[in-house]
Amino acid sequence: MRAFLLRRALHAVFVLWGVVTAVFFLVRLTGDPTPFLVDQSATQQEIAEARRSLGLDRALHVQYLDFLRSVPRGDFGTSIREKRPAMQMVLEHLWPATVELAAAALVLSTILAIPLGVASATHRNGAVDHASRLASLFLQSMPSFWLGLMLILLFAVELGGLLPAFGSGSLRHLILPAVTLAAAPLAQNVRLIRSGMLEVLQQDYVRTARAKGLAERFVIYRHALRNAAIPVITVTGLSLGFMLSGAVIIETVFSWPGMGRLIVQAVPGRDFPVIQAGVFVFALIFVGLNLIVDLLYTVVDPRVRLT
Amino acid sequence: MIRHTRSLILPLLLVWPLAAAAQPATLPRTVDGVAIDADAELVVALADDTNNMDPRIGMGSIRSNYIRQVFESLVDVDSHGRPVPGLALSWKPVGELTWEFALRRGVSFHDGEPFNADTVLFNLDRFFRRNFDKWGLKDVLAATSFEKTYPFVTRWEKVDDYTVRVHTSESAPTLWDFIGREPMVPKAYTLKNGVDGLNERPIGTGPWKMVEWKRKTSMVFERNDAYWGTQPLFRKMRFQTIPEGAARIAALRAGQVGLIEGVPPFDAPALAQDSKLRVVSSPQKLSCRLYLNARPKDKYDSGGKDGLFADQRVRLALNLAVNKDAIVKKIFNGYALANASPVASVSYGYAAQEGYPYDPARARALLAEAGFRDSNPLTLQLLFPAKHYGQSFDEMTPAVAEMLKDVGVQVTLKPVDFATLLQTASKGTLPPNGGFAACRTGNNLDADDYLRDWAAIAMINWAPYPPELMTLYTATRREVDAQKRLKLLADLQRQVRDWAPVVALYQEVKVYALSARVLRFAPLPELNMDFRGVAVKR
After folding, report:
1. Which end of chain B is less crowded, N or C, counting CB atoms within 10 A of the terminal residue's CB?
2. Mean pLDDT, rounded, for B358-362
3. Could you give the CA distance from residue B118 to residue A111 in angstroms, rounded to a whole number?
């Protein structure tokens, strides 16, 4: 296990270096941020001065080496637009807003998916199964911005302000964005659990468990679900990564102050330091989640050995 | 949302003497015979948050809305966009090369620092980047470089504690505007706390004190009870960022915000029918145009070719080919203006011009005269910054391209991100047959803000003034007599209209929707909203 962790840590360093390097050069390929910082009537000379003040007139390799020296200290520079430390801005948006929303959506999408998926599989082709499959199809195919707006119209407008239409800071504020964000992964998890359970329920060891006289609930949740859950863990790991990094549309619809919107706004604004800091944090999240998912396999399925 | 602040009796009793001392003495209890809630909180939904609060960094359309609640300028504006006394009671030329500002007495910044001539001198030092060593000031990358844009401003002096003179090397009739409209920051506070202090905890003289700022989320203001002028008649205001237009409307209809900006034109009539809401609008200083490459070959990255639109007949033809009335009616639902003057209709010195008629036949004839026929059609590579100016703009540009195609112009529409457009325009890398659709705005009041667009080669100048127009433009910059200057400005606008440096598309009208409980809100033709005198019905 120790060798595995060491090797994964080395891989992580290599992946993160690759990501920050790619992002460093790619953002500079998109062009120059200085026209944003000067007046519409600015002359070439004024624009050149602005570039100089940002250090963008230096040779690219000099900028890159400076950047690489700063990254281990967590210093990604100062936001071109907000004049504040880029990493601080990213972390302010990551915690608590993004983490709160992603965690709530994760809990909703997994906790609800388990009974729904299991019920769908155990009542195959019954009313529960049909309803569950139909709901999954509906939730998965619905655009999140549309679902979000419909929920706002229903709960904030039509039901007399039962839930707030925007903002963050309380459980009431969290409900609508979390439900919207959880909708698609919930549907996906229900379908995965259903198909996994249908396969596992045909296995010999399930038949054996039943023959031993175990209670059906015990058979399903203790023996079948653990094996059916492995693909769900993989997908949930990836989903959580996307929830943490890419809930831009939900953040926009509900005015949620998360990290996705910060980075998406930084891209057209060519705020290089914020993009670089944001992508670094995204990469770190994905690397970390992948590691956690690998470790979880060993918990769920003792046959899996990490070497 | 409009909230009423409830307070507990005990804390109220404890703070009563302090609160009573801070309360303005003359706040009315009714407005137009309607009882008002002086303790209300008004939530205003805006599409975006500001990046900075230091006015020197920039005063664009988003920033201004936030900055001008806290900071004030020497020259203020009324609801018609006319200049009125702000922190200066008056301004006048003293001789040909000097302007004198008489400052308002008894004004303090939110932290108690007095506003006086020293404040103005310090701000002038900041504008023109002078005496930085003396003050230990940190330079900021400012949107407008005063020292380069107005190099003829030579020095400034304090006549007494409330009189400041600014000297120039040439007559500068618009000095009251370009200096007068810049917000004033406190001297002692800025020296102590630097630019970071101004950005994080801005201290101004304005009607609102900023008390909380959650970036990208909201900014909370409290009424400045020591304000020298007409105060807002409610206690607290929250600027809430809600980027999505439909979500802003839903929040207003749910009663969770009291006022929203940027109402989509086709949603306005439905909102106006709701008895609990009102819709108000005002023309803005945002003029949207097609900029066409009419630069001579030595003025851009040309590869040895003059801009294809250097011929005035071609530009005029394109103006005649575009049906502006249809655009205003069909795309903006009437919430836009067709304005043939190069100056916004709400600027000082604006002179209305005869619109370019929609005349495709004449447009074809002019193109033929200029040598562009079916056998040798005019081509236009039109850059189009999609998803930057809003949905209506995004619908309009392809419509304009189709109108140009109807008169035989071969238009290639190239959607780009806004940064790419800015970069192309600033580096001068448009192709000879290139053009772009864009909107320009400004913080100044005078027509010069628009008319200087074609004076020096800059990002948005792709049709520099010919010598005769440059002479006339220079005359408007030199004439100090107000009446004579207005005549010169009108003459220049007429000639620029005929010379047609751009295809004038529309001038924006900004639409707001608000709860009927919000009283006396009048939209400004400026980039910001003004809540002085605004009340909330009890």
Report:
1. C
2. 97
3. 65
pTM of this prediction? Answer: 0.86
Cis omega (within 30 of 0) for bond into A96: yes
Chain A: closest CA distance from residue B461 (Å): 8
Its CATH class, for the domain covering B2-258+517-536, is: alpha beta
Find the DSSP H helices in chain A.
2-29, 44-54, 60-70, 86-93, 99-111, 113-122, 127-141, 144-151, 171-200, 204-211, 216-218, 225-228, 230-245, 248-253, 259-266, 272-300
> Is the pLDDT assigned to residue A167 strictly greater than 90?
no
Helix, strand or coil, per DSSP, at residue B434 = strand
Selected residue of B52, B140, B141 to mutate for chain A interface (largest A Cβ count, 10 A): B141
Within an 8 Å CB–CB cutoff, is residue B377 touching chain A? no
Q: Which of B95-109, B310-324, B350-364, B450-464 has the lowest mean pLDDT?
A: B450-464
A144: contact with B, CB 8 A cutoff: no
For the segment A186-221, what is each residue's pLDDT rounded down to a tens digit? 998 899 889 888 888 888 888 898 888 888 888 888
What are the tokens at B470?
A: 């440059």
Mutate to test the interface with A, among B3, B138, B145, B427 (most CBs of A within 10 A): B145
Q: Where are the domains of chain B?
A: 2-258+517-536, 284-509
Q: Residue A233 to residues A1, A189, A192, A245: CA-CA distances in angstroms? A: 20, 9, 10, 18
Q: Give the burial string for A62-98 (b: 16+ CB within 10 Å, else e).
A: ebbeebeeebeeeebbbbbbbbbbbbebbebbbeebb
Pairwise CB contact (< 8 Å): A42 & B459? yes
B contacts of A255 (beta carbons < 8 Å): 217, 240-244, 247
Could you tell me the pLDDT band of residue B222, with boundaries at 50, 70 and 90? very high
Asked if B529 and B61 count as a contact pair (C-beta separation under 8 A), the reply is no
B143–chain A Cβ distance below 8 A for any pair:
yes
The reported pLDDT for the residue numbered B16 is: 35
Structure tokens at B302: 């040309």
Closest by Cα among B452, B459, B411, B454 to B438:
B459
- Residue in B with minimal Cα distance to A42: B458
| B16 vs A: CB within 8 A | no
Please name each of the domains of chain A with its CATH number.
2-73 (no CATH), 86-300 (1.10.3720.10)
pLDDT in tens, B140-194: 766 677 888 888 999 999 999 999 999 999 999 999 999 999 999 999 999 999 8
**Chain B residues 219-258 with a CB less than 8 Å from chain A:** 240-244, 246-247, 250-251, 253-256
> Is the predicted pLDDT of residue A89 greater than 50, yes or no?
yes
pLDDT band at B2; cut points 50, 70, 90: low
Please name the fold of domain B284-509. Answer: Dipeptide-binding Protein; domain 3 (3.10.105)
pLDDT in tens, A112-121: 888 898 899 8
B428 touching A (Cβ < 8 Å): yes
Residue-wise pLDDT for B444-464, tens only, equals 899 999 999 999 888 889 999
